[in-house]
């Protein structure tokens, strides 16, 4: 049941959709916080290759992703197939991998603008799979990003070493600009960076006029390099201005929490790239360095002001003129739960945000990261009054609901596994249907019964398609004859979900009959769904 398929190539679409405006709720400094396990591994493998190229320690963008069955398994239902076989699995599998590659590529471009000076719009993947009638999983995955032809070092996935050397020299110029302004205030630094970029660069109208003939959104990807190459004959488009500004900000030490983001979309009715800066006051301001160079903003303010709107579109002003900025649809959720928000009030230097009270006052250190993750992923929340209640015992309905949310809230039309008449668990109905469909729960389950650690681990194991794990017996209270419990617990041990409890006599126990608490279940799920949280480095 092993088959290899040829690489697929996908070009980024350059059109904007009509998304419903959604106000951002949370903001991260880098894109990619909501990537799946497989996407996280693809991102990390490609990022490592990209950083190696920039450092001069490699030239290839092609990587073998350390994928595991836990990372990349799909059911026939998830692929919209009634039965999986070699003749029908290729297209749906390439579709789901392609969507993941699209997310990863988008995140890499906005997180690593300098390091990806060579990048084209195409990326590739090759995979091997194994399958049964009901599920398919990847056994290997190779990914790469195409290098623009004029920057290639031989093949389409290698970068010319001479271009790498030139980029490294340009980096020194950017570093000198940052060093020269190190003693200034946050806002003074931003103003100096704007002025330096505008002094070094002229908008490339010829490239803009030829844009539709080019395979790239904003012309040559060597944009950022042009800004700092000390060559008056090379000039950039908006991409270069925006990426250069972010690069200088990324190199800087600011007083407080200041972060520069790249935003992409439309300025009026033309494709455009600009910056959004989160200042030390916790608010977000729009900076358009391209328009600064054209003297449309002037020298009075780095930021556009008087922003109106939210979500996808904002109208801002500079002097007597107004400008409309519309985010591309794929910008939604890139850094936030929605689109990057823009402050409606002007920036006031020296304003610090109030120190927030801790969300919860009862979370011990051993589960604090897991609680933050679970709340951030909308898997669960607190109990009110600043309490998360990590020691509260959980019912079957609660734990299956947590697991269903962690799995992405998959739809299910399966019959409910139990009689819930008169039971106040409407919140758990879809989760219970999904659990029944996956074989986690049968008709005899009591949704309101307390859930043991053993049952919780079985649920997680079944959510991961009962993946087997090799290894010697460790826990004295998990007998091999209890096949289901044994399989689940040793899967969890191998994957770094739990290490159990150490006993005084040197033995280890899992305590499968102990009721699972809120703190324990979010910790188990955090380790299961976030590779970096695992107790083992290779998971």
Short description:
With 539 residues, the protein is an alpha+beta fold. Helices cover 32% and strands 16% of the residues. α1 packs across α2 and α12 packs across α13.
SSE succession: EHEEHEEHHHHHEEEHEEEHHHHHEEH
What is the SS-derived class?
Answer: alpha+beta
Please list the strands of the largest sheet in the order they lie side by side: 6-7-8-9-10-11
Helical content (DSSP H or I, runs of 4+)? 25-40%
Please report the distance between the alpha carbons of the first and last residues.
Answer: 25 Å
Count of DSSP H/I helices: 14
Would you identify the regions where 5 or more consecutive residues have pLDDT less than 50?
1-25, 211-217
Can you walk through the features of this model?
The protein has 539 residues and is of the alpha+beta class. The protein has 3 domains: 31-151, no CATH class; 183-331, no CATH class; 365-533, no CATH class. Helix content is 32%, strand content 16%. It contains 14 helices and 13 strands. The protein has helices at 37-55, 90-111, 161-180, 186-200, 205-209, 223-228, 238-250, 289-293, 365-376, 396-406, 429-437, 453-463, 483-494, 518-529; strands at 3-11, 63-65, 73-75, 119-131, 135-147, 259-267, 270-278, 284-287, 303-310, 313-318, 321-327, 501-502, 508-509. The strands form 3 sheets. It has a 6-stranded antiparallel β-barrel. Strand 6 (259-267) and strand 7 (270-278) form a beta hairpin. It is globular and about 75 Å long.
